[in-house]
Amino acid sequence: MDSSMSYWSIVIALNWFFHGTLSITTVLPTVNNNNTNNTNNIDTSSDTIEIKVGVLGLDYEGYPFSIPRIGPAIEQGIERVNNEMLNSSFKLTPVIKVYGHYCATSKAPGMAAELFYHDKIVAFLGPACTYAVEPTSLMASYWNIPLITGLGDNGKFKNKTIYTTMTRMSFCQCRIRRVLASVFRYYHWKNVSLIYDVSDANSDVLGNTLKDGLVKSGFEPNVISFNGIFNTSLGYYLRSASSRSRIILLIVPGETKRKFLLEAYNMGYIDGQYVFIDIVMFLFDGEYVGNHDWKRMDGQDIIAKKAFEALLRVSLYIQYGEKWDEFEKNVKEVAQRKYNFTFGEEKANYLIGTFYDSAILYGYALNETLESGGNIRNSTDITRRMWNRNFTGITGEVVIDDNGDRESSFSILDMNPITGKFQVVGHYLANKPYYEPVPDVKIHWPGNLLEPPPNEPRCGFLGDNPACIKRQGIPIYVYILLAVFGIGLLLMIVGFIVNRRNQEKKNMEAMGWRIDLSEIKFGTTKLRSGASVNFCGSQISAQSSKSKIASIVSENQIFIQTAIYKGAPVAVKRLPFPDVVLSKPLIRELNEIRRTHHQNLVHFIGACIEKGAVLILNEYCNKGSLHDLFANETVTLDQDLRISFIKDLVKGMIFLHDSDIKSHGRLTSSNCVIDGRFVLKVSDYGLGQLYKQNIYPPKFSEEYKKLLWRAPEHLRSTMPVRGSQKGDVYSVGIIMQEILYECLPFESESSTLTEEEIVSRVEAGLKPPFRPTLETPSEFFCELIQKCWRENPDDRPDLKIILNIIKSKNKGKDKDIMETLLGRMEMYASNLQSLVDERTVQLETERKKLETLLHQILPSSIANQLKLGKPVEPESFDCVSVFFSDIVGYTDLSFSSTPLEITTLLNDLYSAFDSVLENFDVYKVETIGDAYMVASGLPIRNGKKHAGEIGRMSLQLLQKVSTFVVKHRPKEVLKLRIGIHSGPCVAGVVGVKMPRYCLIGDTVNTASRMESTGEALKIHCSAMTKQLLDEIGGFFIELRGDIDVKGKGIMKTYWLKGEQDVNTEKPDPYCLTPPSE
User: Fold this and answer.
1) What is the distance, to the nearest Å, from the Cα of residue 928 to the centroid of all Cα atoms in its chain?
2) Which residue numbers delimit the Guanylate cyclase domain (predicted)?
């Protein structure tokens, strides 16, 4: 399901929760959208109309956009809007909500709904991070109110057909390549090397962006990628870069960058011939950005400072000056006064400024709308006034393009060798998209040079320019060096041969995909009665008497050769190759395919490559291929099943395109197979190197049939071994036509043309292009299919766009595939089949009831082990907390009540108790009469949290019992007596017919004694539990004193009285995103 659909469900549910209907009531009266001259129908009876904007953010101080930082900036911006833009009849007011400690989606949507429905806000300022921006923006689009964020840098937010009301004040990595290109052209640098670390997520993304982006800007960078976790030979990468250029981009984390520059210093690269460039968007003292400074206090700072002289830095532009200083001063003052947050030595970062500018931008649009008599709740009007606009903000010149995204400005910085601090030496501004040096500020080129280094040294990158080589006699030391070199070369050759043999041995040992022929057990494959026709390696039943549904869902129909491998059925594809050479590319490719996993890709199990036998073993899908279904005229697929197959096909191909395999190249309906759950899976992907060794031109009609799915550009020339992604889109279009119209490709054309003639016409590129006939087509799918098989590959849509189009068209009709099949079966099945379906449903219901009952009797982890038939061994726990309770006066109450009344009482009481337990990490062990036993810290360990969970639960149960009403004695007040203790115990399943999860140990006995020696309506706890509660903190505990406990002697015990701030919502650890380490 589309993720956005879940957000619409949230919006509707929250709307119903707040109002009970789907109507929307806001802080302003309802606006008539048909009357554009109506100034919002605002009630002007009061002096000032309050217009509220919602501010969403997090409070974790490790993020540069936390509420204590951006909140004061937004307040300053809104204050300026009220004082300088809006007239006195209106007042803009921020309503600030903190949705959590970390960047997460768990609470942001709820907070957004509360702001919209309860606080009546008309716009959002924030949030910042992607996980919170995405759901909030989708909800804002649904409510049709503007959302302006100071960050939101994820590329997905560029699509304003989804995020229709979002305006972004952040930067875009895609523009960095333009900045670098302008610097290179300014200094006449053409040869550039790009070094980036693939093990660091930020460096990897930016490195890949620049790798492709610089090419678009006219540069061919020497790309060097490495894994910073495993590779430490930084000198090797520097030498590799120096062989091609003297301008080196370092896209690496801060620590790695310092190591690179230290190594460059040791290699003599800080002599004025080299320039290193890094990208640091903005500085922030925390783990969010990392430490990009040269200073570490590790004894190497002097060398590091010298090495950093060769570094130029690209950062976001901030217009420093008196206004910024005053702004920063006010932000810090408000943060300390209102948010109890102290900046200390920390400077106000770029994102703080963008949120201030967000408030100013919204103020401009709001004021213009009010002055023109427009509708301030018309998000389209408000948003379009913010888009395609320029103004001077606190962060400099703010340029918003016609898509609602900011054209960022950048600065180029150089380190002052005296102060060791970076200073701005040039700009690339949004309104001046070219490199412009700062007047009277010079770059400190390394080596005390006054000019930048040339693109290429006079003697060449390798010093092999003949003009630099002097002709003279060969001195004796040259012969000595040549001799040493020859010996070294010989040793290197010997070492290389030995190493190659060892490496080949390791590669052979690492070939986990290789299967010995003796491990495959072939059996006698029996087909269903009726003739069989072989087409493209797929056996198709031609029996006409089979029913339509039976031909689809038959469990015994055999479509391809099968075998048994390690006790499981597998599909075996025998390749018609006489012999295969296990080359390194082929081994690498097979390893790559084996690592590829997706629900819509057939799992590659392995290959048997022996002389005369080349077998590919894949996951067995017992429903056959799409080709089998289409070639059988008795099969009819309903619309839901067709669309489900299409979506599965597109999802599988999207994953394939995003993987290292990149493309399929041989996609047909024969290698689209259906598994037992009617999920379509793509097979025969990869293996390009295998087919590359055996390429033959088509000779027979059967071979030309395989070309009916091939794109015309690949028919005209030799197709790459893996085809192309645009060629795959063409094949997907052909298969979509097959699925939607239940026919073979070019079925109507094949009545008058041979397969060879059809392929020739497609290859010829006729106008209009020769394609399959779309008879009585659906207008929607007809247009989509025709886009997929366009003649020009660049005009074909991306598969992700196709999937989004299908989802949007099929909104509200996305049925479960099994539900669709059952519906088809009900149309054609007999009364007997209907009875089988009914019994199946009943069996499934009973099974679920049994599973539910089992999970109620035993812990989930224990129940799952029993269901799998695994033995459950007793387990020791170092420390758990055990709870016992009973009812004081229960015996007298039982004596004066009927058994039925007592049963009803206990059921009501324990049902109420059970509802409380759901809110805590505890396990209900058992109830015996009025005794109630609960434990925490088992079967799943939770550290020391168990004492706190039992303590809070006990307080809640006391509160619950105070309001509990005994039905047959309404005036009777139950007196609950509670005892808790913490310590070690053993837990395990006891019994076979009625298994019970029992706790055994002295801890259980002591907890029971705490309860029996306690008092009514009090929580009696041991010293061990009290110690754990003290470590957790926040609990009020009172010393009871020393008491004589049966079997234990004198014990010091305590009363648990309460907890501080018990109404404070506890953070959900499973919904929070921890800060990156």
Assistant:
1) 48
2) 881-1011
pLDDT at 797: 92
Decide the pairing of beta strands 672-674 and 680-682.
Answer: antiparallel
How far is it, in rounded angstroms, from Cα 250 to Cα 950? 53
| Paired residues of 479 in beta bridges | none
Mean pLDDT throughout 374-387? 88
Q: What pLDDT does residue 822 have?
A: 64
Output the CA–CA distances (angstroms, integers) from residue 967 to 276, 902, 910, 971, in the order listed. 81, 10, 14, 9
Contact 352, 74 (CB under 8 A): no
Say if residues 1058 and 1052 touch (Cβ distance below 8 Å).
Answer: no
**173-280+283-316+411-437: what CATH class?**
alpha beta
582, with CB counted inside 10 A (0-12, 13-18, 19+), is middle
Cis peptide before 437 (omega within 30 of 0): no
Partners of residue 569 on adjacent β-strands? 564
Q: Which residue has the tokens 């049966």?
A: 1046
Maximum alpha-carbon separation in the chain:
123
Which pair of structure tokens corresponds to residue 747? 């079925």
* CA 192 centroid distance within chain: 33
346: number of CA atoms within 13 Å, CB side? 21
Task: Name the DSSP class of 119.
Answer: S
Nearest Cα to Cα of residue 650 among 490, 511, 810: 810
Closest to 610 measured CA to CA, from 531, 541, 702, 516: 516
- Look up residue 830 and give its two tokens: 């007999």
Residue 262 has pLDDT above 70, yes or no: yes
pLDDT at position 15 over 50? no
The residues pairing with 398 across neighbouring beta strands, listed in sequence order, are: 391
Which two structure tokens, joined as six digits, stand for 1030? Answer: 């003290």
The reply to whether CATH 3.40.630.30 applies to domain 872-1059 is: no
Q: Are the folds of 49-171+322-386 and 173-280+283-316+411-437 the same? A: yes
Short-list 131, 78, 124, 81, CA closest to 101:
131
CA distances from 1061 to 87, 547, 726, 952, 1064 (A): 43, 68, 60, 11, 6
E-only strand ranges, 551-671: 562-565, 568-574, 604-610, 613-619
pTM of the model: 0.43
| DSSP labels, 470-511 | PP----HHHHHHHHHHHHHHHHHHHHHHHHHHHHHHHHHHT-
Eight-class DSSP state of 809 = H
CA of residue 792 relative to chain centroid, distance? 33
Q: What is the mean pLDDT of residues 486-501?
A: 86
Residue 356 to residue 346: CA distance in whole angstroms: 18
Calpha distance 381→848 (Å, rounded)? 53
DSSP letter string over 538-584? EEEE--SSS-HHHHHH-SS---S-EEEETTEEEEEEE---S-----H
- Token pair, residue 77, equals 């911006």
* Cβ atoms < 10 Å from Cβ of 845: 10
Query: Residue 833's pLDDT band (boundaries 50, 70, 90)?
Result: low
pLDDT at 35 over 50: no
Cβ proximity of 935 and 976 under 8 Å: no
What CATH class is the domain 49-171+322-386? alpha beta
Domain-by-domain residue ranges, the chain?
49-171+322-386, 173-280+283-316+411-437, 622-694+702-811, 872-1059
Angstrom distance (rounded) from CA 308 to CA 420: 9
- Better-scored residue on pLDDT, 821 or 62: 62
Residue linked to tokens 């072989």: 534
The pair of structure tokens assigned to 762 is 């497609």
Q: What is the mean pLDDT of residues 56-85?
A: 91
Q: In whole angstroms, what is the distance from residue 380 CA to residue 365 CA?
A: 11
Per-residue pLDDT band for 82 (boundaries 50, 70, 90) equals very high
| Domain 622-694+702-811 belongs in CATH node 1.10.510.10 | yes
Q: Alpha-carbon distance 320 to 764, whole Å?
A: 63
